[in-house]
Amino acid sequence: MPSSERRAEIDRLRSRYIELVQLALTHMLYRPFDIRWDESPEPDDYAGSVELREAAAQEFAREDFDWADVRADGRDWPQYAQTMVGLKRLANVRYCVERVLADGVPGDLIETGIWRGGVVILMRAILDAYDDRTRTVFAADSFRGVPPPNLEAYPADTGSALHTAKALSISRKEVERNFDLYGLLDEQVQILEGWFKDSLPKVKSRTWSVIRLDGDLYESTMDALTNLYPGLSVGGFLIVDDYGHGPCRQAVTDFREAHGIDEPIEAVDWLGSFWRRTH
Ligand SMILES: C[S@@+](CC[C@H](N)C(=O)[O-])C[C@H]1O[C@@H](n2cnc3c(N)ncnc32)[C@H](O)[C@@H]1O
Fold it and tell me: What is the pLDDT of residues 117-135, one digit of tens each?
């Protein structure tokens, strides 16, 4: 087989592998669909959940309701899937990781707020698919859910009841088992256990090519930006899963204003956004 055909075949198989991993992580390979709404905190307590529940109720009522849409959009907190991030936001992770690999943008990859580990497993799978042995995927989480809001320091988190959501508290053991199921738990994965305010200063001096924030709160978003953004390479990506939620968006806006960040923010879907650092 000529080498150009061989390269095309490797590309095709690589792409099929990454797509399969995305479908497995979101539980899209399996039936019945894994859609669950009942784990969010009470709607009175958290504005985000009110929106989600109202949207859900309206969608369920539709005769042509498309369950696959829910997983594609990542709108619920599924029971079995290894990520609550939907296919569209996973495709964005893939785009960013492949771009930095293709462009040779230096740096490790990190997600702050990993839940069952799906996004960081995907990052590691992509590195594997491209035989990248130089970068590490960092996975930062408390492994006991979201912290109670610190209203004195971060009034924007007023009203959040996410810390009461047991479904957000996933053990380190479960995450490591999930990595292992894909055969991807190795020395290119590093787990940063603890509250972001304590764990992220320890990696402050590192260089990053992809930073993905998924900690929901103003505080969690701000802690991640403060400790990680200075290390983001030019050409690297900053992804914000919760940009559609008020407190998270506020933290991003405040940080960008304070640091004169003017790269345009691009929407990924109804919730997520990202930008590429250009200077
Ligand atoms: C919405 S979930 C993340 C979803 C995940 N990215 C996925 O792929 O499904 C939010 C996660 O952030 C973690 N978290 C939020 N704030 C945190 C903080 N300040 N310190 C440590 N972990 C935090 C929670 O424990 C939880 O696992």
Answer: 999 999 999 999 999 999 9
